[in-house]
Amino acid sequence: MKRLALLLMSLSLLATACGQTGVLDGIGERTQAFVEGDVTTTSFVVAIAAGTGDEGVIGADDVLWFNDDIGEQVGGSPDDVVRGVWSRKLNSRFIQASRVEIARAMPAIRFPAKVPSDIRWVTSQLVFDTSKGSLDPDTSAAFGLWTAEPYQSDTNRLGVLRVGRASVDAPSDRSDVVPILVPDGISLGWTESGHRYELFCRSSISDELCTDVAQSMELLAELLP
Q1: Which residues of the chain have pLDDT under 50?
Q2: Dihedrals phi, psi of 62, to nearest 5 degrees
Q3: What is the three-class DSSP state of 126?
Q4: On the CB side of 1, how many CA atoms lie within 13 Å of its CA?
Q5: Which domain holds residue 116?
Q6: Residue 125 sits in a domain of what CATH number?
Q7: Nearest one of 27, 35, 12, 32 to 159, comparing CA atoms
Q8: Does 78 map to a domain?
Q9: Is 196 helix (H, G, I), strand (E, B) or coil?
Q10: Does some domain include residue 94?
């Protein structure tokens, strides 16, 4: 009933919060891996901060970032970094990129400083318009939140954050967060500093915890190792 109420509320707010281009494409859509080779799984202990009810959150710097070993292969301007990542393309518009590269390519992009305490891995991609070789304005970057080593099982992915370009009339300040019901969970949408965000959380994550994560956004550049 609670999520039904959220759906009814979101219908009246969605157009205002998300701009003319609508929500980001493919809510909860599976993001495929294009990194070959084995990944060494590391055991670690993190401190759990106060969350909502019995749930907890941990810092985004306490999880393993799947693509951090890529580093920044191309320096220079944001356009230089985008071209460098595009040069690694295989057969998808989702191209694996490190958080350093994404922060350089999209200097104003934000990421949650806190994630659910079950999360152990984060995957990260820049997303392209393949006809132009430039970032797709609807979804320019995508992040997956995983409870175990990524891409082994889709059930291990509890959340997805997609970031696109906000409409030209969107306010620069953070907008209200709009809940959008989807079949397997909830998605929260908002705009801030020229970007449009959509955070998808599976139904195993409470609405309150998903909101806590969305409210903890910081510049990705400030979350670099």
Answers
A1: 1-53
A2: -95, 0
A3: strand
A4: 0
A5: 2-10+57-223
A6: 3.30.200.100
A7: 27
A8: yes
A9: strand
A10: yes
CB atoms within 10 A of CB 89: 14
Task: Kindly list the distances between the CA atom of residue 109 and the CA atoms of 32, 44, 92, 135, 180, in Å, as whole numbers in the listed order.
Answer: 22, 28, 22, 13, 22
pLDDT digits (tens, 9 = 90+) for 91-139: 899 999 999 999 999 999 999 999 999 999 999 999 999 999 999 999 9
Q: Buried (b) or exposed (e) across 139-157, using 16+ Cβ within 10 A?
A: bbbbbbbbbebbbeeeebb
Rounded distance between C-alpha atoms, residue 64 and residue 121, angstroms = 5
User: 82 — phi, psi (to 5°)?
Assistant: -60, -45
Q: Token digits for 181?
A: 């019901």
Tokens representing residue 10 in the block: 């979101």
State pTM to two decimals. Answer: 0.78
- Assigned domain for 81 exists: yes
Distance of CA 65 to the CA centre of its chain: 12
Domain count, the chain: 1
Strand order in the sheet with 56-59: 49-50, 56-59, 114-116
For residue 50, tell me if it sits in a domain. no
Where do we find the tokens 């350089």? Answer: 104
Strand runs labelled E in 9-69: 49-50, 56-59, 64-65
* Residue 52 token pair: 């909502």
Give the per-residue pLDDT at 172: 85
Segment 24-38, tens digit of pLDDT = 333 334 333 222 223
Question: In whole angstroms, what is the distance from residue 199 CA to residue 224 CA?
Answer: 20
